[in-house]
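Risk register update: the risk that structure generation would not scale has been downgraded. Supporting records follow, first protein first.
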Amino acid sequence: MFQGKVTVLQRRDGYRFSIDAVLLAGLTNIRESDRVLDLGTGCGIVLLILAFRRRGAELVGIEIQSELAELARKNVQCNGWEPRIRILQMDFREVAGHLPPRSFDVVVSNPPYRAVHMGRINPEPTRAVARHELAASVGDVFKAARHLLPTGGRLGLIYPAARLARALVESEAHGFSPKELTVIHSRESAPGTLVHVEFRKGGGEELRIAPPFFIYEEQGAYTAKMRSLYEV
């Protein structure tokens, strides 16, 4: 991927990253000097993209599943990005007991999209935890981010448009305000199915609605905006 400049090892029969990771890494505003933490990093894909695009000075990923955490470490090594990227195998719901408060500038996450009662749970464990709220919910993401970020710190999420109300309720409950909202469409003729939201801890009520983001042209090729997310 990325013109062959990023190596990503994945299991053939388990969890595999999707385009959501590229959207999260590309649409979240991250400066070169930012300390960034990825909650539920999976194979480390978001951090690999940020390192390739020269975003963030310190990149840390937390992954609860030992198999995926080890895979993420291998991906970091394959690309020669240690010690810039660190992978921690732990439950991010317990982050307060392991990392100092206010120790990051930006938190990113692509949390499980489905509540436990929504649809069939995949029998393959790594896929099940990635898709359903078996190990953590979007509320847990906000709780962890509240500990990790100072006032003014930013949280970037990719989340289903259909569940946006849930994310907004949780954000307010944990002291965050949505500051920028982007609705993501597969193509211009399709409804928006995902949102990218950037929240700010202790932020005011002003919210910017960004122009809609289209992934594909009607003919099936990536749009210019989508192609730009694969560039440095």
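Supporting record for the second protein:
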Amino acid sequence: MSFRKINRSTHKWVSVVVAIPLLIILVTGILLLVKKEFSYLQPPSAKGIQQVPSISFDQILRQTKTVEEAQVNSWADIDRLDVRPAKGIVKIRTISQWEVQLDSSTAEILHVAYRRSDVIEQIHDGTYWQKNANLWFTLPVAIALLLISITGLILFFYPYFKRSGRKR
């Protein structure tokens, strides 16, 4: 078999294998790029009164417990806190994918919404299906995409290279 046939065959079959995972990564990547433009994907950030946070962790937990949709009973139900001093808010992300935004000086609830961008991100990197999927799913897709790019460039430039060799 010639190099050209092996290269073309490799390019074709790797492309077929990587097509669906690559489409999933591309579509979710596009959604992540525009997530702040659509409140359906990621809740917009509210504005608090002051830029200096002055509420305690107890106040944050107490206020978050009052939001029924968030399903918070203890700190175990909270995934992370995102403090935004410039906006004067604290974003509480729950395990149930809800986001509660509090004023960082009064603890007033400013905004409550479901956060879909985290699920999209998990699908994007493969961790939606399995915790280490980014190593056995996304990494092989990236390597296959690199292989397709290299073989595609060879397929594209090979005729030009061959023609220039004939002219010499």
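The chain has a mean pLDDT of 89. On this basis the risk owner (M.S.) recommends closing the item.
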